[in-house]
Recover the amino acids of this structure.
């Protein structure tokens, strides 16, 4: 998985809104280079939030160009354990964020996100984040 980047829902939303030309260039570059990957849970979040058939088609077209990263049999349990450990340090996190983070950790890939919750996860785990421009 070396060099691959898991793009979080928060980044995809801004990318598809099309208002940030630097982000469009960056994510577009990752797509063209074959470095962008996604997970089922990210696809679920995006498809669930689609505003109509046109948006659904755009999403399906994007997913067709990317590699999908699947969770392992133990990923959900590991994500739950990670959340439990972080909660003991005073931080309650959503299960979707924990699952996405655990998938990135287990596949040794960085997560590109604008979601602040992942900073907390990264502070207490091996999660590697990309929050700014990488080019």
């Amino acid at each position: 998985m070396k060099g691959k980047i898991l793009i979080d829902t928060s980044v995809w939303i801004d990318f598809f809104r099309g208002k940030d030309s630097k982000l469009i260039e960056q994510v577009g570059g990752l797509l063209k280079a074959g470095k962008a990957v996604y997970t089922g849970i990210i696809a679920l979040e995006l498809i669930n939030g689609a505003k109509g058939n046109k948006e659904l088609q755009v999403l399906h077209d994007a997913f067709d160009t990317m590699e999908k990263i699947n969770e392992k049999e133990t990923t959900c349990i590991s994500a739950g354990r990670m959340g439990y450990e972080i909660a003991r340090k005073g931080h309650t996190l959503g299960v979707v964020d924990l699952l996405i983070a655990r998938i990135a950790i287990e596949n040794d890939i960085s997560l590109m996100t604008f979601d602040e919750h992942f900073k907390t996860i990264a502070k207490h785990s091996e999660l590697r984040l990309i929050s700014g421009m990488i080019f």
The mean pLDDT is 93. The longest helix spans residues 75-87. Helices lie at 9-17, 21-32, 40-48, 53-64, 75-87, 95-106, 117-123.
